[in-house]
């Protein structure tokens, strides 16, 4: 099930500012050569992530799940000169495509890719980070969340992708749908953060780490 109808997705894309040509090039190559190309966040969600970096004035961003690099490039494009985006990926084929695109454009130089299983490589990431985008294996999201919370600065932002899982969260049957549903419920009640579950594309959960745990009920 599409969360947003294809017509409205197209309308939203049309009325979102044009992006640099490298994004269209990467979209085309991904759709021509990769399995499950729709894992790519695309123009509207990608631009939303870029705006989040800019609104939060993030300097250090962590991404979990690079794929071919679309969302990493989007977020890196909004970083200041000395900003860094660290992105974790275990699939060498995906990583090769991504690195080739990071090397093509100036803001790609701000991206540091870390190869390997994210459950392991995340242990080596140094805080503080200002923002995280979690978009890898769904059953590990909760694990990633807790790891990210340890290094996220107070006031920092986390965006989780695919949190409506094509609508399957309404009647979760598979392992992924069940894991996502459980995490949505946990985050809505987690007093360490404020949150909103947004119906962007396949669902984006936005979380802000509170500056003090008794700031709000
Ligand atoms: N953010 C990307 C899409 C990510 S798709 C974009 O917008 O283009 C999810 C990615 O996570 C895939 O490339 C997959 O290989 C990677 N991945 C899945 N499980 C992983 C794990 N345990 N460790 C590291 N990467 C993982
Ligand atoms: Mg995704």
Looking at how many chains there are and whether they match, the oligomeric state comes to single chain
How would you state the average pLDDT, rounded?
A: 96
Class in CATH?
A: Alpha Beta
Helix and strand composition category: alpha/beta
Share of residues in strands: 15-25%
Low-confidence blocks of residues: none
- Side by side, the strands of the main sheet go 3-2-1-4-5-7-6
Supply the CATH architecture. 3-Layer(aba) Sandwich
With helices defined by DSSP (H or I, 4 residues minimum), what is the helix count?
8
How is the biggest beta sheet arranged? 7 strands, mixed
CATH topology name: Rossmann fold
**What is the element string, with H for helices and E for strands?**
HHHEHEHEHEHEHEE
Tell me which ligands are bound. Answer: S-adenosyl-L-homocysteine, magnesium ion
Please state the overall shape, judged from the principal axes of the Cα atoms. globular
Distance between the termini: 35 Å
Helix content: 25-40%
Tell me the Rg in angstroms.
16 Å
Total count of strands: 7
Which homologous superfamily in CATH is the superfamily?
Answer: Vaccinia Virus protein VP39
Structural domains: how many: 1
């Amino acid at each position: 099930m599409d969360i947003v109808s294809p017509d409205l997705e197209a309308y939203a894309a049309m009325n979102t500012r044009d992006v640099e040509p490298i994004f269209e090039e990467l979209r085309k190559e991904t759709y021509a050569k990769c399995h499950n190309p729709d894992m790519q966040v695309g123009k509207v969600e990608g631009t939303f992530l870029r705006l989040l970096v800019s609104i939060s004035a993030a300097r250090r961003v962590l991404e979990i799940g690079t794929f071919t690099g679309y969302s990493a490039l989007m977020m890196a494009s909004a970083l200041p000169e000395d900003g860094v985006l660290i992105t974790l990926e275990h699939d060498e084929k995906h990583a090769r495509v991504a690195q080739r695109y990071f090397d093509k454009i100036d803001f790609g130089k701000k991206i540091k890719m870390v190869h390997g299983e994210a459950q392991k490589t995340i242990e080596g990431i140094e805080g503080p980070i200002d923002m995280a985008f979690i978009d890898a294996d769904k059953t590990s999201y909760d694990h990633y969340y807790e790891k990210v919370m340890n290094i996220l600065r107070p006031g920092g932002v986390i965006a989780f992708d695919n949190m409506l899982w094509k609508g399957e969260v309404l009647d979760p049957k598979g392992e992924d749908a069940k894991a996502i549903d459980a995490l949505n419920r946990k985050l809505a009640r987690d007093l360490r953060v404020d949150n909103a579950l947004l119906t962007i594309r396949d669902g984006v959960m936005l979380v802000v780490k509170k500056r003090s745990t008794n700031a709000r009920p």
